[in-house]
Amino acid sequence: MIKILLRNILFSFIIVIIFFVLFEFYAFYTTKIYYKKMKNADIKYSLEMHSYEDFYKYFKRFLMRPVENKNSKSEPILIFGCSFAYGDNIKSNETFSHHIAQYVKNPVYNFAYGGWSIANTLYQAQNEPLLKKFTKEPKYVIYVYTPVQLHRMYLHVYDPGDNHLTVHYDYKKGILKEVKPSLFLYSLYSIKKTDKAIAMYKISGDNYKFKNQDILTAYFKETLKEFKKYWKNTKYYILVYDNEKDMYIEKIEKETDWQVVTLSEIVNIDINNSQYTVSNTDKHPNKRAWDIITKPFLKRIGAL
């Protein structure tokens, strides 16, 4: 009886191991090839991705929006952020960066991309060689912030089935430390990612809120510190693509040199109205939204 029980336990254990190995192989394979096609009107690509470094090289070569006013000798303007700044599902000549270039003579670089957060900008500030090669300090660094970015700081580095690559940092005792991507034991990382994402979507309790205020502020502080290593005279702005400053942004404004501008300070529009979004279901800003927002924003920061 005991032998049969042990044999059954051993058999079950072997089955679990086989299933786990097959799952890991599947996760590894799909993660390598899931970048196949993008919905943006003017970009299609395929990619086998093995590291942040590979992704950013590919991003600069194929995904990055065109540099506006490229031949200008003026100080550049740099845009960072997520799909809102990048311009998901709109053409390059409809984006925020293109609209800025219609009002100024400065070259405008769009370093944003879909699914990103301030964590990606911190990674770029620490690792992007292009940022250190500008012959002139940027006149402005503009980060486009949306509240949905908050939970992304807790996601694992890979997100199969979606066109995202999120950079992950551990936050302990006020210090951010980058966690390198790993494809090993992917399922366990997925569980960890999901737990943290759920926790972020269900923020409750003053202690938990305060903890997340700290981490968001830490990201913006650290990013600013990296930028200021080589750009001491640049002006740094956060454009909050929302009508209110939440507690997280208010804390950043009080404790850092980032200057904050919300939409309600410069325009009076309902950002969820379909006339300002890509579609009824896709809430990314469309050309009309940037038509209305860009000029007042540039006036607000003193660019006009």
Describe the structure.
There is one protein chain. The radius of gyration is 22 Å and the shape is elongated. The protein has 10 helices and 7 strands. The protein has a 5-stranded parallel sheet with strand order 2-1-3-6-7. It has helices at residues 2-33, 52-63, 83-86, 96-101, 118-127, 186-201, 206-228, 247-255, 263-266, 287-300, and strands at 77-81, 108-110, 140-145, 168-172, 175-179, 235-240, 259-262. The protein is an alpha/beta fold and 304 residues long. The chain has a single domain, classed as Rossmann fold, CATH 3.40.50. Helix 5 runs parallel beside helix 7 and helix 7 packs across helix 8.
Shape-level CATH architecture = 3-Layer(aba) Sandwich
- Low-pLDDT ranges: 31-50, 156-164, 182-210
Tally of DSSP helical segments: 10
**Form type:** elongated
CATH class, named Alpha Beta
User: Could you say which structural class the secondary elements and strand pairing correspond to?
Assistant: alpha/beta
Order of helices and strands: HHEHHEHEEEHHEHEHH
- Going by CATH, the homologous superfamily would be SGNH hydrolase
Strand content: 5-15%
End-to-end C-alpha gap: 85 Å
CATH topology assignment: Rossmann fold
Give the helix level as a range of percent: 40-55%
Strand order of the largest sheet: 2-1-3-6-7
Largest sheet: 5 strands, parallel
Number of strands: 7
Number of domains: 1
Instruction: Round the mean pLDDT to the nearest integer and report it.
Output: 76
Radius of gyration: 22 Å
Annotate the secondary structure layout:
Layout: H1 2-33, H2 52-63, E1 77-81, H3 83-86, H4 96-101, E2 108-110, H5 118-127, E3 140-145, E4 168-172, E5 175-179, H6 186-201, H7 206-228, E6 235-240, H8 247-255, E7 259-262, H9 263-266, H10 287-300
Parallel strand pairs: 1-2, 1-3, 3-6, 6-7
Antiparallel strand pairs: 4-5
